[in-house]
Amino acid sequence: xxxxxxxxxxxxxxxxxxxxxxxxxxxxxxxxxxxxxxxxxxxxxxxxxxxxxxxxxxxxxxxxxxxxxxxxxxxxxxxxxxxxxxxxxxxxxxxxxxxxxxxxxxxxxxxxxxxxxxxxxxxxxxxxxxxxxxxxxxxxxxxxxxxxxxxxxxxxxxxxxxxxxxxxxxxxxxxxxxxxxxxxxxxxxxxxxxxxxxxxxxxxxxxxxxxxxxxxxxxxxxxxxxxxxxxxxxxxxxxxxxxxxxxxxxxxxxxxxxxxxxxxxxxxxxxxxxxxxxxxxxxxxxxxxxxxxxxxxxxxxxxxxx
Amino acid sequence: xxxxxxxxxxxxxxxxxxxxxxxxxxxxxxxxxxxxxxxxxxxxxxxxxxxxxxxxxxxxxxxxxxxxxxxxxxxxxxxxxxxxxxxxxxxxxxxxxxxxxxxxxxxxxxxxxxxxxxxxxxxxxxxxxxxxxxxxxxxxxxxxxxxxxxxxxxxxxxxxxxxxxxxxxxxxxxxxxxxxxxxxxxxxxxxxxxxxxxxxxxxxxxxxxxxxxxxxxxxxxxxxxxxxxxxxxxxxxxxxxxxxxxxxxxxxxxxxxxxxxxxxxxxxxxxxxxxxxxxxxxxxxxxxxxxxxxxxxxxxxxxxxx
Lengths: 306, 306
Description:
Oligomer: homodimer
Number of domains of chain A: 2
Strand content of chain A: 25-35%
CATH architecture of the largest domain in chain A: Alpha-Beta Complex
Strand order of the largest sheet of chain A: 7-9-6-10-8-11-12
């Protein structure tokens, strides 16, 4: 059983135009909405994080989804399900972290949700709402031939940080550990593009990795994307990891934004282009070219259902 | 650790005007939003229900929360977290049930969400969005002296149905079993009141029981509510249960709406009034009067954290 297989079952059952992007664009209400769930020991471990950082990151990843749509993040609701032995302090620190994330991203409020008991794991589900206003809203199906591919910042840092945490390193000032525990949603990048473009563009965050985002855009837009590995921004320090290429390409949770935009767009760092070719992503690395179909990418990325 | 204690921690941490009602009223966007989570073996058991009915009820209870605000239910997002051995059929049937609930309630769409793995329990979190338009939005703090208390329909049927299911009865045509497994959100009652009133009124659904809803309204509005037990609508058949008074008063999940409205309001069934007295609910039953403070009610109702 795999996530993508189940999503296609949901799509065909609902026959809905909304399922596809991370955010649903509800035009009649002038909003986008997204929902994400995080489950203890699947999506996070209290071995590596604390309640404050957990609240911070849970909120930030939902804000990031709104940013990927181009809308202005406005409100969140949070549903927490907690084992009965959870201390009150956990709830307080979790919400303090969430509130800090909201404040760092502008005028965002936690407007509600619920709290219930759970058997033995912590479940967090967050719904985020963004206002579309006069912004140009993206879709992963909007990439077109001739556009360039841009990214908002460094790739790979978060998964490098997770590796360090898994090795027992608890240095919260370390750039990678910090990138993993306290990612930042790309508020300004999103705002710049959605306020200053008037054409169709594709945008996604790299929550599941850069290649996965590029592959999803290629598939939904039915285009071929050419990526130049040497142009992908990353911290020089990541090169001490054995598999640093993989961290940059397939590591998730950086929450950078990657977009397919017109050539004259002045934002972000150019890493490739939409070019003639079959649907998928060609990675140009060390004078070699490797083509990845959506299926190839699915084999590489981590799947919580495996 | 109790739900209400944790909600007060969240309230004081966030210092938010939104936390309090089941729905948050986001005036600048013209919407209300609510989120509820259901966890296997805490909120439901697959011993008593099936995936279709589970999807139906999960969606219906969130639509009910929107109805309690007076807004028009419009969209839902659903987050499902499933153990890896869950069959694809579960997902399809769950969404078919959810879709049916949406269709029965009018023009409501499931617009997104996510699907992830979980350790060993099914976890469902649903976010619902309602449009406020020209409707008069309720708050549980809006009950005022002189108003009457009305209810949309029968109380107690759902918890009677749960009792039958727990006794091994699987007769899905039984009125109580049906009321428990396939409750109906009170779409018309909500619409009538919110479109045809121009004063402040309180409204809640009876998801946690009639007395709990009345007590919450009394507490948040700082009023005294007088209830005449003999006026509370219920199925005559419920009187075969030993504790049928308790089922009607404290049994949850009927998803009726209870409201405090002006005396001339022509909707619903009158069961009491807002009268002089200390904050709480007086129940008049068999020529006795029993006063319940919010604390008394909390001791009676089922708490998932206990």
